[in-house]
Design goal:
Two copies of one chain form a homodimer.
Chain A lengths: L11 H8 L3 H8 L7 H14 L5 H8 L4 E7 L4 H4 L2 H15 L3 E7 L2 H12 L5 E5 L7 H7 L4 E4 L10 E5 L1 H14 L5 E5 L5 H13 L8 E3 L4 H14 L5 E4 L2 H13 L9 E6 L2 H4 L7 E4 L2 H17 L14 E3 L2 E3 L5
Parallel strand pairs in A: 1-2, 1-3, 3-4, 4-5, 5-11, 6-7, 6-8, 8-9, 9-10
Antiparallel strand pairs in A: 10-12
Helix pairs in contact in A: 1-2, 1-3, 2-3, 6-14, 7-8, 9-10, 11-12
The first copy, chain A, binds a DNA duplex (30 and 30 nucleotides) through helix 2 and helix 4.
Chain lengths: 345, 345
DNA sequence: CCGGGCGGTGAGAGCGCTCTCATAGACGCT
DNA sequence: AGCGTCTATGAGAGCGCTCTCACCGCCCGG
């Protein structure tokens, strides 16, 4: 209240005056463009320091049409994002990358259809240079919204439709799933079950496909669908146990579901990994390292994926519309996964 | 790429022209001010719809000096925020409140001292109307930074210093701790231990104080310090068990630490709650409902606290500097806690 | 029938910045 | 010495919006 520097934030004009140059020159120095004599540049820089000048972003945006801000849109129905730290990790990666490029992160959480309109308006309003979209279901309208708003977009996770110029970053869900199952096979397990995620999400489908790649003729009763929650994992495990008491291994499509499965196995008196081997997916460390026993899982580098999303988006934003210089067109990114061996399998 | 409405985002001028009014009148309608004849207003609104007009926020900010955006600053060293969903829940509350008031949420994550400078510059740059600060230690310089930048601020959690005009929102840590201990006492427990959080955070200190309020003469060996991680909880529990094998109850300063303690108790062959009763703090549902056994804990309404922070900040921002109308001065908020009984105590 | 008030509207100044374009020197060449 | 060529700098036009202020009718009271 007392300390408002509000009253008189210095303007470029003031800096210029103090340095004895024109506003144009001051601007050039501030923005680091070439061709200002060193002596002058130094004078300007000193003036900036002395005055504590910080450029007014609004004024800048008004003329450059760049916001140096991107939106991170999280479709809330997908409560998974708040139940496990997946989202937080990804945001951290995004934040780091954006910070490195002097961009701001505007967080948009949506809840219900009404919010979609709000987000649509916001994106159309040109407040941000691009958008990162999360947590989409097959029929999600968010990407279309963003496209209609003319805002470059990168999606977290492979979207459910195919479309040449839809950019996304995902891990190799299918390959990771194959690795998981092969690992179980290598352990000598023969009655291998799968707890899938909700099948309206591509990650779930891809992991299921990977499972089937390795075990095409697996007993269909050995597959159950969960919902990416511990509860869902436990229920799926219970169903599996009832249908096939001889199950000797489980590949759960997420660590969180695996933790539920682990609990159910313990309840039913099975030992892990002796009686039933369990393997998860994601390597959410705060889950996988803290289950009992610690979870063998398929690791995806979540934070790095966040970074990549940001990087990809920034590149897309920066790409001149009609590009003469033949930069390679931005393309979706699929990152490798890695088996992390702990105690559960 | 193809669908850029970039080229020609309609301006107020265009709306005015189409509606056959002046820009001033169009502006009045768009901003909902009184005193425009209904017929004209209607014409303007139609023009807005037809053109798909969205106000240019940068231009607006340039003249009004309001951003309709607030920053959420999270000091990262405090990794707790990414290890448990505490932060995510709080952000959700904040987001809801901001959305309801047409404000945007700019997320600033910091990592290391260099980032503080960046944040300081950002705040000083007048990009946001206010800031929400999280995860501060006793000696944190962030609040001073914000104050120097002249940005209204609300802090998440009681800060370590006392200062009449520092606004914060916190739960009644001390009272909650008292309730926890009394509950244990009511269960007939007599060797009650406490696993404290890091004592450079006020939440930890307050909870410890609450513990001591009820048990002023408790054996000092029955108190151990953790670090708000499962690991820390487990280690603290191990130490407690070694020092006082006769311990029959534990109050952990967080659910996450309680989960570690639970694991350690199981490892040591203790039954919960029969041999040792355990109670946590926070009621992070994804932890407390999923430990084995489910955790009795002290609940704080995290999302609501987020809302309150946002509301408090928005009120502060809106408050005219020299206020003639005698609105009650904004004050810190301390919310009540509630014992949630599950199986562990 | 006239003057004052008042509600509705428009003209225009500016918010702080970037960027184009003109200009003033400095320099190399013929 | 004269000319063109550069390079460093400044002047000034806007970006899209809000807001003040002047203005124009209209209504009411006298």
């Amino acid at each position: 209240m007392s300390d408002q520097s509000f009253a008189s934030r210095p303007t470029l004009e003031a800096v210029a005056a103090r340095a004895g140059v024109s506003r144009a020159t001051a601007s050039r120095v501030v923005n680091g463009s070439e061709g200002v004599r060193a002596a002058l540049a130094e004078r300007v820089r000193r003036a900036v320091d002395e005055l504590g000048y910080v450029p007014n972003q609004a004024a800048r945006t008004l003329v450059t049409r760049r916001n140096d801000a991107i939106a991170v849109v999280v479709a809330e129905p997908e409560t998974r994002f708040f139940a496990d730290p997946f989202f937080a990790q990804q945001v951290r990666g995004i934040s780091k990358e954006l910070t490195a490029h002097d961009n701001q992160l505007v967080l948009l959480l949506t809840e219900g259809a009404a919010d979609y309109q709000r987000v649509g308006r916001y994106l159309a309003g040109g407040h941000v240079d691009g958008a990162l979209l999360f947590s989409l279901h097959d029929d999600d309208s968010l990407p279309m919204l963003a496209r209609r708003a003319g805002v470059p977009t990168v999606i977290g996770g492979r979207p459910g439709w195919s479309d040449a110029d839809t950019l996304y970053v995902d891990c190799d869900n299918r390959g990771g799933a194959r690795d998981a199952v092969r690992h179980l096979l290598g352990l000598g397990r023969r009655r291998i079950a799968h707890i899938a995620g909700p099948l309206d999400q591509t990650a779930s489908v891809d992991r299921l496909d990977g499972f089937r790649d390795v075990l095409p003729d697996n007993d269909p009763r050995l597959t159950a669908e969960g919902d990416f929650t511990p509860d869902g994992g436990a229920k799926a495990m219970a169903a599996l146990l009832e249908r096939c008491p001889d199950v000797d291994a489980v590949f759960a499509a997420s660590d969180v579901m695996a933790s539920g499965a682990l609990r159910m196995l313990r309840t039913s008196g099975r030992r892990v990994p002796e009686d039933v081997a369990v393997i998860g997916f994601d390597d959410i460390v705060s889950v996988s390292e803290w289950t009992d026993p610690p979870l063998t899982t398929i690791r995806q580098d979540i934070e790095e994926m966040g970074r990549m999303m940001a990087r990809l988006l920034l590149r897309t934003v920066a790409a001149p519309a009609a590009n003469g210089t033949e930069t390679p067109a931005p393309a979706p990114i699929v990152t490798p996964t890695q088996l992390v061996r702990r105690a559960s399998a």
